[in-house]
C-alpha cells in the first residue's frame, strides 16, 4: 500500500472509542487489530526507507569521513513527516480497509 497517499491525520486526533468498537463489540479486540496493523505498516515503512537509504551507503566504514548527503537528508525528512503507523492503521480500520478474523468465533460456528 502507498502510505504516502493516505488521508490519515499527521497529528493526534481524539476519537470516541465506543465508535471504534462498534464493529467488533470489544474495545480490546479493536485495539489489538489496530496495533497489529500498525506494526505491519511500521515494518513496511522501515524496510522501504532502509532500501532507499541503502543506495547512499558508502563502501568505506570510516567514522572520520562523515559527510552530509542532501538527497539522503531530504528522504529522511519526508519519512519523518508521514503520519505515524498507528494513525494510518486507525484510519484504515475506520474506513473498513483492514481484514481481520477471530479464530475463536469461527470455532463456535463450526461446532
Written description of the protein model:
57% of the residues lie in helices and 0% in strands. The protein is mostly helical and 111 residues long. It has one domain (17-57, 67-103). Helix 2 (27-54) runs antiparallel to helix 3 (70-81) and helix 2 (27-54) packs across helix 4. The protein is elongated.
Total number of helical segments?
A: 5
Strand content: under 5%
Could you describe the largest sheet, including whether it forms a barrel?
none
Shape: elongated
Oligomer: single chain
Q: What proportion of the residues is helical, as a percent range?
A: 55-70%
Q: What is the ordering of alpha helices and beta strands?
A: HHHHH
- Tally of separate domains: 1
Low-confidence stretches: none
Number of strands: 0
The radius of gyration is 19 Å
* Distance from first to last alpha carbon: 37 Å
Structural class by sheet pairing and helices: mainly alpha
Q: What does the average pLDDT come to?
A: 82
Amino acid at each position: 500500500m502507498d502510505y504516502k497517499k493516505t488521508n490519515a491525520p499527521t497529528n493526534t486526533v481524539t476519537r470516541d472509542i465506543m465508535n471504534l468498537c462498534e464493529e467488533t463489540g470489544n474495545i480490546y479486540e479493536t485495539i489489538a487489530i489496530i496495533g497489529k496493523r500498525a506494526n505491519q505498516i511500521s515494518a513496511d515503512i522501515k524496510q522501504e526507507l532502509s532500501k532507499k537509504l541503502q543506495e547512499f551507503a558508502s563502501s568505506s566504514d570510516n567514522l572520520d569521513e562523515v559527510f552530509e548527503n542532501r538527497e539522503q537528508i531530504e528522504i529522511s525528512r519526508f519519512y519523518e513527516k508521514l503520519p505515524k503507523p498507528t494513525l494510518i492503521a486507525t484510519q484504515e480500520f475506520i474506513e473498513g480497509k483492514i481484514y481481520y478474523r477471530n479464530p475463536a468465533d469461527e470455532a463456535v460456528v463450526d461446532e
